[in-house]
Amino acid sequence: MKLAGSPLPHESAEGHVTGAALYTDDLVGRFPGTLHAWPVMAPHAHARVIELDIRPALRHAGVVATLTGSDVPGEGNSGANRHDEPLFPDEVLYHGQPVAWVLGETLEAARQGASRVAVRYEPLPAILSIEDAIVQRSFLSGPARCFRGDAASAIADAPCRVHGELRIGGQEHFYLETQCALACMDESGGVFLHCSTQHPTETQAIVARALGIGENRVTVECLRMGGAFGGKEVQANAWAAIAALGAWKTRRPVRVRLPRALDMALTGKRHPFLARYAAGHDERGILRGFDVELYSDGGWSLDLSEPVLWRAIFHLDNAYLLPAVNVTGYVCRTNKTSQTAFRGFGGPQGMLVIEDALDRIARSLGLPPEVVRERNFYREGDTTHYGMRVKDAGRISRIWDELKESSSFDARRERVQAFNSAQRHRKRGIAITPVKFGISFTATMFNQAGALVLIYRDGTVQVSHGGTEMGQGLHTKIQQIAAESLGVNLDAVRVMPTRTDKVPNTSATAASAGTDLNGAAVADACQQLKARLAPVAARMADSPNVNFAQVVEAAYRERIPLFAQGYYRTPGLSYDPRTGQGTPFHYFAYGAAVSEVEVDGFTGEYRYLRTDLLEDVGDSVSPVIDMGQVEGGFVQGLGWLTLEELVWNDDGRLATDGASTYKLPSWTELPEDFRASFLTRASEPGVVFGSKAVGEPPLMLAISVREALRDAIAAFGDGGVVELESPATPERVYWAIQRVAAAKLVLNEPLAAGALRE
Amino acid sequence: MAIAPPVSTGLSFQLNGEIADVSGEPPQTTLLDYLRSRGLTGAKEGCAEGECGSCTVVMVRPCGEGSAYKPVNSCLMFLPMAAGHEIYTVEALARGGQLHPAQRAMAAAGGSQCGYCTPGFVMSLFAEQYRPGRNGPCSTSALGGNLCRCTGYRPIRDAALSLGPAPEDEFGLRLKMPAPAPEAFRGATFSRPSSVAECLSILAENPHARLVGGATDLAVESNLKGKRFGSLISVELIPELRVFKETSDFVEIGAALSLDEIGALWRNAPSFFGEWLELFASPPIRNRATLGGNLATASPIGDSAPLLLALDAEVRIAGHSGTRVLPLDTFFTGYRRTLLRAGELLVSIRIPKPLPQIVRFYKVAKRRLDDISTVAAAFALSRDRAGRVEMARLAYGGVAAVPTRARSAEASLVGSNWDLTAVARAQGALEREVSPIGDHRGSAAYRLAMAQSLIAKFHHETEGG
User: Fold this and answer.
1) Which of B113, B148, B374 lies at the smallest CB-CB distance from A10?
2) Which of A95, A562, B65, B190 could disulfide-link to B80, CB 3.0 to 4.6 Å?
3) What is the Cα–Cα distance from B308 to B380, expressed in whole angstroms?
4) Which positions ≥6 away from A300 have C-beta within 8 Å?
């Protein structure tokens, strides 16, 4: 059986189920004398620090040291590009922002010490909403523009028009393992860090910058992460810098681990968005022009907000041809956490806007939304609004047709209607939505990767590569790719923890491209080694039962190097951020989903009756891993669109800062009937083993759930547009029902009593 | 490692078959902190408030003649509370290099991705596999206290459904023997009295001591809000607080019984009770949280108060001057305040019989299971032969600073037919009677709308109208 393509469990599965798999914070016991860190957190969303007195903390038993700006030998700023994230700020820019840190012999000592630090603040006015930011022109970036044709004229000349405004909530990553870094001085005066980071190279660079030393004196290792989802792409850096500064100052190991409440209060989330749009279309629902203003809530610093906004702009089309389009986007600067990468990276927000618009167009025409969606699909030969040919556009219709068939969509649509005619207080809804997601970093330079493959004389292999393992199964796929490429057994290959001293200058493990990039680099190294070993093996072909180890030993004796570096750069990318035009993606990942829900009209609560997913993963390198990404991504997206709601208080404090107030999908969110499958005959040429990226695209399959909810809500009325902000919490669904029911003007029953007071 | 009945005494407990001495640990230390400091890092901290289950371990608890494994959140157990108990962590499961079937099933099904939540799931699944009396497949509701952010749960469900009967191994044999019997203890920072009298005297000597049942609320205050308790008094051994008695006149439930224990003891409980229990937190919380604790914390959104108010329950309180009995209806005096005086102890809850003809419990929340209510409602209704309402009790959580009954809405129903007109009348009365606040769980308007709408839903479900 081929190793690439076989359905293997996660390479660490046994470690996971026994608890033997180690995460950064599990290592503390291996570093005797470790100090624990706790931040001094500002109780204002925006304020000036007038006075900071750390002496009371130092008097507290067990407190060893404090960290303030004067302890920074290098640059006290963790902002990767704009240098806009001071580690010890004079001006507090979001609620809870650390202004100093306390290091203690125990976590308790550090925590109690931190509570004794005396800080005087001068509160300043805070901007806490996108709307406020727009009014005050408080932008971190923008306008970003992308256009094709004359959208305004196309809309004005179109037979029909719709306008919409959509508020899209953010999302907390809620990786189960919170941010954690453990720093110590190494044996030669450098700094070594264990860190839960998706981007060890950038963590290394930020730490070196903070310490004022060369990057060659900082080593970062990431064993594995307990989930990341984008939340540790840049946001791991500040905590690593604090740990390193602590180790530098005290010469003792320092552990920085954010407990959940701190992690939620201090780290960035998926960007909330506000979209305002106008669309012109014909009587059949076919789009003529689309004009969109996008505002994202970037929070207090720039972070990755610009590429997130651009990816939203690039995905405003989803799977649909926008003949004329004009998009303007801004990143709003607010006094909130600095919003950051999160699985989909702006793509989900962009797609939600066009899906909102198409549902609106369909319902305003009295057409089934799936009909309007289908009529607008890209066809072979079409190009996107940013000027890129839609590679494999025919797959959109193929997936759509196959899924409609396999999910019995048409028959179920009729059954839903029958149910709704018979039921007064419960209504069902069904929807099918497509996904087209561009694969590659939109910043072309990041689309490169390196690998280091070492063969030892006993025939065992170590593989290092630039990617990090966060649960997505990258190491499993790498192991399969390496074993397949070298022609050895899986257990001969050991994938090493990611370290900056094995492969330098790596890109973040992000953009769904971990396997595409690192897998190709590993395959490259393996192919070099294979080519070197081939003549040796050929010479031994006459001997019976020659195994890999014997070939390796023979090669060693012939003085053939048994290690190789691999490298890969994605071909064919070109994109000009000034014009918003080019080919930013290597290819597109496609998929579609059908979801059916049932809504309780008394409360707005709902159940997920059934979901069918069909995802294009190319030739899967690892089907169990890929299925895990498809199903898990869908449920995570469902959480974003339904129950996961971030609420900030009037004073800018995150009110939903824990698992009891911020609800993740649990068992009740697993659709009662859940079917997922891969598109067949879908090999992707030019990608490692014909596979396709799978990390992010399935998240957006969950848009089918939101659209199914709108379908059910509509059934409480007489048709017409359904206004529904995101997330579609039971409360929002309830009010949406009240609105459509009010429009229906049959309110003489208790259902509506006490309603309509939103 | 052998599995044997425990022999631990004082502040020590049996951990994975060995004695762990925990004397002298700081009072805010949780079992989870302790396990991790001992190098048992399989249990993880994911939330520190008993919501995510990454820290799940199992306790051996009495069950019939033998015992059962009960999953609990180690982040919510103050370390001294473990004293005298027998606890297993994920590290104990694999034997001789062989994975336990629960582990094997999770690995084979693709049930782990990042793996951080996995040890917790494994422990819940392990306990479920050995659940005494289990017929048929493992129930995924036993995993309701574990969150996974990666998989979307389908492979974990498949792992659970793939498990067969409990293995006849050491872990199975262990359950044929009784659970350990923790002993009373008296110390400066932790006491575990064995009678009401002893408890009252400790309270009298130590007025700032906090009573603790399962600590599922108190430990959250410690972990998240940084509250520190100089002295804790565990009520887990006090016999009067562990009674369960059903007579023709009442059902009496000891304040220190866990929700799980109550479910097991009330064998012929009415159906509404089972439905309510399933909506009450998660299995590991139900294994520790006590009914007394849920009432004494007086949270306006606790789930037991509305049901007990609808059932017209009374609370029995012990103090130095004896026992007093109060209607639960008068017990809550303000936000997280009750009539419990310093030095007093909530002993038991009595539900009068006969039970009302119709009782329903509703909980509106963002998530259907293991969420805190936006609005909780319990309705009790009895009708005369003519179908007119004789008695109505409409009790709510989440609509006021305290769990409350809607008296005038109730009054508007009594004496009339149970029809849509009556529903509308009650809804109108309710609007004048309650004025909920808005917060991150729901707006004030939604809470009021739910308080009203649930009456209509109640009518719909009882009358089909």
Assistant:
1) B113
2) B190
3) 10
4) A93, A94, A97, A333, A334, A335, A336, A337, A338
Give A745's pLDDT tier (boundaries 50, 70, 90): low
Contact status of B368 with chain A (Cβ, < 8 Å):
yes
- The residue of chain B with its CA nearest to that of A675 is B154
Question: In one letter, which amino acid is B240?
Answer: E
Task: List CB contacts of A362: < 8 A, sequence separation 6 or more.
Answer: A285, A368, A369, A371, A372, A373
Q: What are phi and psi of A484, to 5 degrees?
A: -65, -45
Q: Report yes or no: A637 and A701 within 8 Å, Cβ to Cβ.
A: yes
Give percent helix, percent strand, percent coil of chain B, each to the nearest 5.
35, 25, 45
Q: With beta carbons less than 8 A apart as the criterion, state whether A685 and A516 touch.
A: no
- CA atoms of B243 and B257, how far apart (whole Å): 8
Band (pLDDT 50/70/90 cuts) for residue A205 is: very high
Query: How far from the centroid of its chain's Cα atoms is residue A285's Cα?
Result: 32
| Residues ≥6 apart with Cβ < 8 Å to A374 | A397, A400
Q: Which of A709, A630, A650, A662 lies closest to A269, judged by CA?
A: A662
Query: Could you give the CA distance from residue B348 to residue B253 in angstroms, rounded to a whole number?
Result: 5
**Stretch (H or E) spanning B428:** helix B420-433
Residue to test with chain B: of A10, A24, A176, A627, most B Cβ within 10 A: A176
In chain B, whose CA is at the least distance from the CA of A472? B113
Are A261 and B43 inside 8 Å of each other by CB? Answer: no
Q: Quick one: average pLDDT of B369-396?
A: 95
Residue B262 has phi, psi (to 5 degrees) of: -60, -45
Any chain A CB within 8 A of the CB of B425? no
The encoded tokens of residue A650 equal 């009037």
Please check whether residue B409 touches A, CB under 8 A: no
Please name the residues in contact with A306: beta carbons below 8 A apart, sequence gap of 6 or more.
Answer: A141, A144, A331
Q: Minimal Cα distance from A111: which residue of B? A: B226
Choosing from A374, A644, A696, A707, the catalytic residue is A696
* Residue of chain B whose alpha carbon sits nearest to that of A752: B453
Contact B367 A669 (CB under 8 A): yes
Over 60: is that where the pLDDT of B1 sits? no
Of B51, B111, B443, which is closest to A659 when you measure between CB atoms? B51
Predicted complex: ipTM over 0.95: yes
Q: Are A450 and A478 in contact (CB under 8 A)?
A: no
Q: Which of A635, A676, A754 sits opposite B453 (nearest CB)?
A: A754
Report the gap between the CA of B243 and the closest CA in chain A (Å).
Answer: 31
The residues, any chain, with a CB within 8 Å of residue B321's CB and separated by 6 or more, are none
Q: At what angle do helices A520-539 and A548-557 cross, to 10 degrees?
A: 80
User: Looking at the predicted structure, is the pLDDT value of residue B68 above 90?
Assistant: yes
Q: What predicted TM-score, i.e. pTM, was given to this entire model?
A: 0.97
Per-residue confidence (pLDDT) for residue A580, from 0 to 100: 86
Distance of alpha carbon B280 from alpha carbon B291, whole angstroms:
11
